[in-house]
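question for whoever is on the cluster today: can someone run the full assembly for these? two chains, 678 residues total. i dont have access anymore since they changed the login thing
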Amino acid sequence: MALALVSGIALGSMYGLLALGFYVTYSVSGTVNFAQGSSMMLGAVLCYSFAVTLGWAPVISIALALLLCAAWGLLVERIAVRPFAARGSNGWLMATVALGIILENATLFLFGKEPRNYPSVLADMPVDIAGVPVLPLQLAIPMAGLVIAFGLHLVARHTRLGKALLAVMQNPDAARLMGIDVTRAVAGCYAVSTAFAGIAGILIAPLFNVSSDMGTLFGVKAFAVAIIGGITSPWGVVLAGFSYGILEAIITALAGSAYTQVLTFAAVIVALTLMPNGLLGRAGTKKV
Amino acid sequence: MTPNRVPRTAVAAIAMLIATAMAARAEEPIKVGLVAALSGGSAKSGEGITRGLSVAIDEINASGGLLGRKLELVRRDDESNPAKGQIAARELIDQEKVAAIFGGIDSPVSLAIVPIANQSKAPYFSVWAAATNITRNGANPNFIFRVSAVDVLVDKALANHAMKAYQAKKLGLILVNNPWGESNEKGLTAAAKERGIAVAGIEKFEESDVDMVAQLTRLKSAGADTLVLVGNAAPGAQVMKSLQRTGWQVPVVSHWGVSGGRFPELAGPGAQKVEFIQTYSFFGPQNAVGKKVIEELKAKYPDIKGPADVVPPVGVADAYDAMHLVALAITQAGSADGDKMRQALESLGRYDGLIKSYDHPFSAENHDALGENDYIMVHYVGNQIEPVAN
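^ ran it for u. tokens below:
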């Protein structure tokens, strides 16, 4: 049981990390990149290509992969979000999904058709914690999630940048009049959001495998997590991620794997009915 | 208008046209189709089947083809997706007019194509997918044939191996959550009952699952002493990685899905302890056909240096024999018509093949050319598949 919980927490932090990407763009622009799963895959595939195929140093590979993920985020925002958001259309919903599918198929061509193994020293030997064997990577993933959520919290509450971004969220026109470059702020948020997805991809790769469709299911679960967490609160999102992962593990361990998907997604519906604004989200003010 | 009032030149011209058209028809190749996973976690299986078919087709074409026509292979990738497999099968039957279709590793894809093939009277050959109800589908007439293992028989063989090699008394089943897993759930439960051993637990996983620790923990606490794994290479690897994390030392016997991809790479050291089933091994003493096929594979594919590089062996061997059986049927029927081929297949005589010498491989009742005695247990040694020493 303890073992299953460790696995659940590690997976839950993955969902949380991806969901933080939703939080970042939603809280500033009211839009999200629905292809977060593909962005996560991009991070893992790039890092694998640099570190394993080309044999570059891990630090360089990771940095470069995240940089390129951020660049991909800028591209997504520029071609799949900005043109639609500017017209007040919801076309970005479909456009981001479409771009994700294009990315996955392009990867299929360029990276290859077979899943590959991404070896990591952090996923080799389990260490013993209170009698439970735990891989170092399984500890690193929740840490990364918490550190990033804490960082976002600090930025949002205590920096000029954070205040400027919150201003954009509250009233883009007023923010623009105050001299805040709204367009750049939104683009920046997309870059950060896909970089988070990239981190998630690089972290999960050694526990899973690297392939063009590795992100699909993660993307769906992360979106559920973002909504449950109340998409406007970083702590809520991370907490929802942990809860989701732990719930999956507990259901599988107690009721059996046949019930995992049915019961976890049923729990999602119940959670949303009881807490329509998510765990820590605030109700949006509706102006009538 | 009476016939003798038709100008003779016109009759001659029409006759000429028909003759030319028929000559052109004779020149046209007979096409056979392959709908299999050519990408994704089981891409290696599709490549193996392609190689087996290609070597057989080269042999047939070198000896003059069939009915004076060349044989040609048309491949489609089903991406392990039943819907994509159906679209590909329809296209091959309607547009490419293939004489027969060969299927890939995925039972769910094959099961989706079965009704289409039966409706279109197009012979469909499973050369890997093992779900029992692919061939035993209740259709009459039945156009589905198989040169591969059958789950009900594989499950008996796996239970036998678990008992003989590991003195198993309580099997823990860890199965993929799809029709193929279900086919084996029935087969393994029945096989255990027949042999008077228990099934400690039945756990399922999804193709895309990352972590199976919870399922394995349940099997362990239920007292399983041997695990039986049914799944393809990528999720199978996740099972082995999860097993390694739990530190549970338990023997694993497996259906052959794991051999369809990069299992040793994906699963790491855990891959080597898995003992699984195949229909053929290119190791050890070979019959004349075996020697010939290895030489032909080496000549055609530069990456094949010896028997160890013929991976996955089951895909290559099953496809090779199936292609020759189809060719014999076309010759015997004197036609590539679906229904005539079906009747010819059901009354084929002897064929000295790679896996064995087939004698009346199919009948109206039995569409499975291989049986329980044609299976062997193997394991990975490095990246190579070698027979388990008994």
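summary bc i know u wont read the tokens: Chain B has a mean pLDDT of 91. The interface with chain A takes residues 38-41, 43-44, 177, 203-206, 208, 210-211, 213-215, 217-218, 234, 237-238, 241-242, 245-247, 261-262, 265-266, 268 of chain B (CB under 8 Å).
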